[in-house]
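Reopening this one. Same input as before:
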Amino acid sequence: MSEKDEQAIAAFMDNQFERTVEYTDSKGDKKTRKITLQDPGFDIASQAIDALNVGEDTGDAGRLFDLIMHNVLVNPHMDYESLNAEVPDDIKKKTVTKKNRSGKDVHINMVWPGYRTALQIVFMSTRPSGASNMNGTMTKLNSEVFRTDKNEVLKMNFWDATGDGSGLGMIAMQEATKFLAEITDRNGDQSVLGKAFQFLMESLQQVKL
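Same output, byte for byte:
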């Protein structure tokens, strides 16, 4: 091995950083995971930060975490395809029953939309400026997560005063957020990505990693 190769390996190893991630698993037990991260360099880091606000006060969390998985997270390896493949079929659907404003039992049916969409929904509830994005989030939930009893996409008027979901809009959003989080963080994956994002932000600052 040449001296140049040895220097390259040494530089690579010097850019490896271990972190411990704490999370609560699907059974409610406190767990930890060891992860390895790397400084991706300014080019990738700045692209990721730009994804936080892609214009018109909207962010692209899907692209943000895609960049992080491919350029910051060394171990464990993650990508959307493998993450989706690991989700068991028996947790991809969930139904909760709530009483609407008139006292009628209503099914809030939810389906798993995939990791990229799930992360986008979770992180789009507030706009980059800090403004609320309730309508945008509900619109996305209606098309990607909520389903009728006939497995059809929900329309916004389902939640209106004359719809079956009257008075249940906020409750449904809370249930959907819980449903998505139960999957995205059941093994600490969302917490791992959150820690990697924090590391990414630190990599842009004059701090010791």
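So the earlier flakiness isn't reproducible anymore. For the record, Residues 169-184 form the longest helix (16 residues).
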